[in-house]
Hints:
Blueprint: H1 2-22, H2 28-31, E1 36-37, E2 42-44, E3 50-52, E4 61-66, H3 74-90, E5 96-101, H4 109-118, E6 126-129, H5 134-144, E7 149-151, E8 158-160, E9 163-167, E10 172-178, H6 184-195
Parallel strand pairs: 4-5, 5-6
Antiparallel strand pairs: 1-10, 2-3, 4-9, 7-8, 9-10
Amino acid sequence: MKPFFRACGLISFFILLTACGADKEVNLDEEFSMKLEVSELEGINQDEEAFITSDKKGEFWLANFIFTNCDTVCPPMTANMAKVQRELVEEGLDISIVSFSIDPAEDTSDILKEYGDRFEADYANWDFVTGYDQETIEKFANVSFMVPAAKEEGSDQYMHSTGIFLVDKEGYVREQYSGLDVPLEEIMEDVKKVTN
């Protein structure tokens, strides 16, 4: 009879260990080398709804910088972000996407909506954001994400990052991925790691 109780005790112990392990949170400082605090930015999205970065606290999200008049990297970047969104849905991962316009004077909500429609963006969890001034978005990109965002002299084009950024639920940028040669598998692995 004693071996039976001993076996039951061991099984219970391992079940308890497994249950405890399931609730263990990932140490983000060990998993990721970046930790840049995202400052508060207020704007509006493609549906003219208010957007505030601080409202994203408590969730992980992906971000990038685009402008609709871009004649080089933005269309492929946005097409790639649409692929990321579809893959997230297929994997059952609930994470939102934010594309910040770095040309707010040109990129009204209507224009951003038309732009997002071209790439079949699902607006249920993808915001295209504008509604701030040029100086604000440039400073936001430079300080919060440590990336360039500036108008090219004598041109209607902008210099900006082609990265996709993973932001944690405390509002810190944790990882940067290429928005042109997108590492889909790596993004999915990282998102699963922090959201499961």
